[in-house]
Amino acid sequence: MQHRELVRQVVRDPVHWPAFGFGLGLSPFAPGTFGSLLGIPLWWFTPPVLWVQLLVGAVVVIAGIGICGASARRIGVHDHGGIVWDEIAGMYLTLLVVPREFWWILASFLAFRLFDIVKPWPIRDLDHRLQGGLGIMLDDVMAALYAACLLLLGRTLL
User: Fold this and answer.
1) Which end of the chain is more exposed for a tag (fewer CB within 10 A), N or C?
2) pLDDT tens digits for 89-139?
């Protein structure tokens, strides 16, 4: 599908709006990276109360299964690079283990993007085996888990 046609389809169908990060996923360059940025204000404006943060994370992930699945079906591509709700969720989940400080936010962003792009085992397997919204979401949840573990290790060592 040509980029112009994709833009028209996303703009016309509100189902695509959250899936495409309210437009950030339409970036012709690194849409997942731009989409990940939306996870930062979502985390920042969530009250720093663990049960609230976990509830928001669960809602974002569960909603993402439906949102990403519906969008992928309508455009006919399983995990189109422009579908970035999963990156938003992954970035949000990664941030749950760090303090609200610039350098930790930056480290979280870099760690999440690293694991989301490289997709070490078993992330790559999940990405290829699971179809639909669950498959789209789960690889990013796993990338967030890997990134969070790395960040927790960093916090412990520093």
Assistant:
1) C
2) 999 999 999 999 999 999 999 999 999 999 999 888 877 788 899 999 999
SS (H, E, C) 34-64: HHHCCHHHHHHCCCCCHHHHHHHHHHHHHHH
The closest of 11, 148, 130, 140 to 84, measured between CA atoms, is 140
With a CB cutoff of 8 Å and minimum separation 6, the contacts of 67 are 15, 18, 19, 85, 133
CA of 107: how far to CAs of 40, 68, 72, 119, 121, in Å?
Answer: 12, 26, 30, 18, 21
Question: Please, are residues 94 and 151 in contact by the beta-carbon 8 Å criterion?
Answer: yes
3-state secondary structure of 67: helix
DSSP 131: -
Q: pTM to 2 decimals?
A: 0.94
Question: Taking a C-beta distance cutoff of 8 angstroms, is the pair 81, 21 a contact?
Answer: no
